[in-house]
Write the structure tokens for this entry.
Amino acid sequence: MKKILVLGAGLVSRPGVNYLLEQKSLEVTVASRTVSKAEKLVKGHANGKAVAIDVENDQALAALIREHDIIISLLPWIHHVKVAGMCLEHRKNMVTTSYVSEGMKKLAPAVLDKGLIFLNEIGVDPGIDHMSAMKIIHAVAAEGGKVLHFHSYCGGLPAPEDNDNPFGYKFSWSPRGVVLASRNSARFLENGKIVEIEGKNLFLNPKVEEIEGLGKFEVYPNRDSVPYKDTYGLKDALTVIRGTYRNLGWCATLKKIVELGLVDETPQTNLKGVTFKKMTADLVGCPADQHVKEETAKKLGIPVHSEIIKRLEWLGLFSDEPVASFDNRLDILSQRLQEKLFFKEGEKDMLILRHRFIVENKDKTQDLITSTLIDFGIPFGDSSMARTVSLPMAIGTRLIAEGRITMKGVQTPVHPEIYEPVLSELETLNIKMVEKRIPQK
């Protein structure tokens, strides 16, 4: 029996761990700092074991890695390279759902030399997005066609029936991470030209896209899309854009939150014991006992009765409630978002992933190809985010354990040997991309 070690027992781990435990040819150890979380995941499975681990204890971590065949890291990404180094030392294969970091890239020659595979980016975004895109790109090439324009958008949102707050969003993972992403710059290829957008302008001009049966959504660009021209082999592409879906109003509101200075992690000495109204008043330069809401609207250059000001008021930024005990505004904001924008018991999330290709066929005609995944969480069960992140990871792990993935080195799932069986297995779990092809005039 192959021995699988899962490092981490966080929000997205359960569906993937359950899938692995259902494979009777695998022994699965879940290691977590909070061992009770790991125990909950393996409960009732004879081939499952829970252990406590402190990832800062290198000796204990190395000893645990040495005992297993495939190591899955669901730890925060900053720990992946350390885990990878230990996997390399002890000749163990490794799987993560995270982007390939520069540190991971540097290990690639040694991983290849030792005949190992370190499979990264095998979640949803990155993961299912890569696999479903490459399936179409390779099919178009096989027909003698070429991709001229490529758009790929993904977003995790509340299901429409549970979309009941003014922000149109609920957090299925760390609010801090989502808020910090609002400062990222973006870069993409559009109609043959490189477009660069500064972080401060990320939300300035979102596109609006309609998805049949769900309505309209905003899309803003996601980091640097340009390298995907090479990653995906899109040598003829004039447009390569990857982006993020949000409900209408999100972009304009987040832009004003950034402008207000709330996404600032600089330690401050004047935040202890203050109210939200006082913190906001200080940001807009007015006394806390005056018209803070009106002054905020004036500072942001928007009407006081605008939807944005209503959202900030709903969040409590003009209230007399005390702020959380942090020394910076970013953490105070993140904590507040966690308190207000959360999934209540039994509510569902929704995952939307869509690719749009304009392809030129062998006979010079053009087609629009769309590939769309719409997935919903299970009430009182697993979220869609957890399923779509951890199930591809678990399937990839199983395929490595069974010897069905034979590639070596630091890899991502852009190769048919990986994406074909993973996508096929995901369909059996009701996670399926729906493709449509429409001739263009």
Summary: The chain has three domains: 2-119, 128-249+345-381+432-440, 261-340. The two ends are 56 Å apart (CA to CA). The longest strand covers residues 146-158. Residues 30 and 50 are 5 Å apart (CA to CA).
